[in-house]
Amino acid sequence: MVGAITTDHFLDHGLAVRQLKGSGHRSGMDAVMLAATAPSGLAGQVADLGAGAGVVGMSISHRCVGCEVDLIEIDPELVDLSRQSLQLEQNQHFADRVRCLCADITKPAEPLASAGRKPGSYAAIFANPPYNDGSHQTSPDKRRALAHKASDADIWVKTAAGLAAHRALLALIIRPANLLDYVGSIQKSFGNVIIKPLNAHQQGQATRLLIGSIRGSRAALQLLSPLVLHGTDGSFTDEAEDILRGRRSIDLFA
């Protein structure tokens, strides 16, 4: 593996994840916010699609002791980093419930084949899809460009639908610019749509959106109240701080 590697701590040092420094996408607040949408009582098979270094799936495993998580990532070096993370002493309380799989989610049969599972076997699917569109300059770093290059929303949602059991949960974190693509795809091939904006400041617009769905539900679209991340002094709000430290979840499916 080429390049420097850091060991980063999440959820108030509840887990540690090895990540590349200066190459590729590095997981941070977006990953923690997405993982926080997992209900505390979530149990069964869980998929983290496009897992990167595994922050989302490992955070869910840390919080939800009834889950077995498959980290599904196309980049073999990131898969190897996830495996290294699972060897860290700090992660031993969930390491036996997490698997690191190398597969391309744009080829829907690959994740199932890699996991050795049948369609409809997952209780929940989480994903932080690539978010840049054509208006963004492509990063010269090939790994970062791959992580950030926008792909067809239909591919991510259809792959998730193929994995999901009836009434399975789907949670995504996206940019507002991609909202219409994902709403249409989810309503067409997964279920209802629940939207929770993440606002940087009380008076600011949303910078990210958490999108939830329940497989097979045809409930009306729901727009939840925003989560405000920062106060007027720039520090995290109490709610955001509690989420980042793993003391509180986000009630996306309440």
What are the key terms here?
single chain; Rossmann fold; alpha/beta; globular; two-stranded antiparallel ribbon; 254 residues; 11 strands; nine-stranded mixed β-sheet
Q: How would you describe this protein?
A:
This protein is α/β, with parallel strands linked by helices and 254 residues long. The protein has one domain: Vaccinia Virus protein VP39 (Rossmann fold, 3-Layer(aba) Sandwich). The chain contains eight helices and eleven strands. The strands form two sheets. Strands 3, 4, 5, 6, 7, 8, 9, 10 and 11 form a nine-stranded mixed beta sheet that branches. A hairpin with a 6-residue loop joins strand 8 and strand 9. It is globular. The chain starts with a strand and ends in a 10-residue tail after the last helix. About 7% of the residues have low confidence.
